[in-house]
Amino acid sequence: MIPIGDNVFFFTRRKPVIIYVLIGIHLALFLWELKLELSGELGAFVNTWSIVPARISDAIAAGLSGNLAAWLVVLMRATCLVSGMFLHGSFSQILGNLIFLWVFGRTIESILGYGWFLLLYLLSGLLTGLLQVLVEPSLTIPLIGANGAIAAILGAYVLKFPQTKIDTVLPLLIIFIPIQLPAFFFLFWWFVQQLSYGIGSLNIPGGVNPFSLGYWAHGVGIVIGAVFMKFLSKKHK
């Protein structure tokens, strides 16, 4: 099931500037990853800028034990909570995330405005990344991708427009059948789609995004997005 658009966005006049910027950044970094893969440097790059829960939890433990210098390491590791969400481990992962960002994000940006939408995107990515560290602190395999931020956008959209029909393409071999599905269906489909994100994987030594509890923790982004939208809806009444 491939969502391709909704009818809500076309009633707004606000250009999705932040969406354009985010898509540009994601694509530029993915192209950089492809370049590094060819030169054999991708593994080092991903391990440096991805979320590796064990590294963050070890640095925090060292800081709590009285090692003041370790808190500088914690701050450095914390930047990976943001940088990791702009990296992707496969063609299917970046394609799936960008499709959801385009279809559902344009409407949410038009409703929230540029600033609030960017805050939602970055904050949800940061919080889901932190949650991944908390639920699986000993994980040594990198976690990357904008999955948590995309989940938040989907959560915000479904809270606001649960019954809105989403124009969708159903691929059957070489035939593509156009259908319409209610927005809330994509809450289920988002989880199903995660299982396909290993298709077209980049050559990263040791792998990324194991299907463990830490990986699936980004699904909490759906709740974060819904709460964020609920809060702003009340605030602007």
Automatic annotation (TrEMBL):
<keyword id="KW-0378">Hydrolase</keyword>
<dbReference type="InterPro" id="IPR022764">
    <property type="entry name" value="Peptidase_S54_rhomboid_dom"/>
</dbReference>
<protein>
    <submittedName>
        <fullName>Rhomboid family intramembrane serine protease</fullName>
        <ecNumber>3.4.21.-</ecNumber>
    </submittedName>
</protein>
<feature type="transmembrane region" description="Helical">
    <location>
        <begin position="17"/>
        <end position="38"/>
    </location>
</feature>
<dbReference type="InterPro" id="IPR035952">
    <property type="entry name" value="Rhomboid-like_sf"/>
</dbReference>
<feature type="transmembrane region" description="Helical">
    <location>
        <begin position="171"/>
        <end position="192"/>
    </location>
</feature>
<keyword id="KW-0472">Membrane</keyword>
<keyword id="KW-1133">Transmembrane helix</keyword>
<comment type="similarity">
    <text>Belongs to the peptidase S54 family.</text>
</comment>
<dbReference type="GO" id="GO:0006508">
    <property type="term" value="P:proteolysis"/>
</dbReference>
<dbReference type="Pfam" id="PF01694">
    <property type="entry name" value="Rhomboid"/>
</dbReference>
<feature type="domain" description="Peptidase S54 rhomboid">
    <location>
        <begin position="81"/>
        <end position="234"/>
    </location>
</feature>
<feature type="transmembrane region" description="Helical">
    <location>
        <begin position="212"/>
        <end position="232"/>
    </location>
</feature>
<feature type="transmembrane region" description="Helical">
    <location>
        <begin position="111"/>
        <end position="135"/>
    </location>
</feature>
<keyword id="KW-0645">Protease</keyword>
<dbReference type="GO" id="GO:0008233">
    <property type="term" value="F:peptidase activity"/>
</dbReference>
<feature type="transmembrane region" description="Helical">
    <location>
        <begin position="141"/>
        <end position="159"/>
    </location>
</feature>
<feature type="transmembrane region" description="Helical">
    <location>
        <begin position="85"/>
        <end position="104"/>
    </location>
</feature>
<keyword id="KW-0812">Transmembrane</keyword>
<dbReference type="InterPro" id="IPR050925">
    <property type="entry name" value="Rhomboid_protease_S54"/>
</dbReference>
